[in-house]
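Readers of this paper often ask what the protein records in our data store actually look like. This encoding replaces a full spatial description with a residue-level series of whole-number codes. For reference, a complete record is included directly beneath this paragraph.
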Amino acid sequence: MNHRIVRMQWLMAVRLFGLAIACYPLLAGDVKTWSAGGSSLANAKTFRMLSTRVLSKSGLIEDDPKYAPLITAAIKREMALKGFKEVAEGEDIQVSAGAFAEATPQVEAMVVSWWGFDTGATIGRYNHSGTIAVNLIDARTKKSVWAGLSSRSRGGDSSLESDINKAANALFKKYPKK
């Protein structure tokens, strides 16, 4: 594959993650999608998955062994339900997908002693949430034709696959009808 195309795809993924991070406070358990005007989605029939990227504390990880297979499977399933067929080459749409998670601290209570010099204590927890980002790129023009973010509260590792599937399903419910 041409280095210029690979670099363009990588830059598109970085931009998508930047958009996801910038819009995250606005989403809070929501789904948000964007569609390019005059897009070529109506005639598209095939797709190819690009590498799934996961934003972690250590940076952007391509094809993360824990999350990427779950995200990729969920996206492929939703694309198939929308009538797309996966191909190895000659695709109409390239699918760039990724995810990031966030833990937000929440103070539940603050205990302060009124007798003496005790400092007090706080009781809190972390709310865990995750966001799946999907960008559909016209393979011919290399321009984004549809993108979406799906954020939701996240349970533990035991519900990870279910959480990802629910987020992908919620995202593709907003996909434009063919």
Notes: The domain at 3-172 is CATH 3.30.160 (Double Stranded RNA Binding Domain). Confidence is low (pLDDT under 50) at residues 24-28.
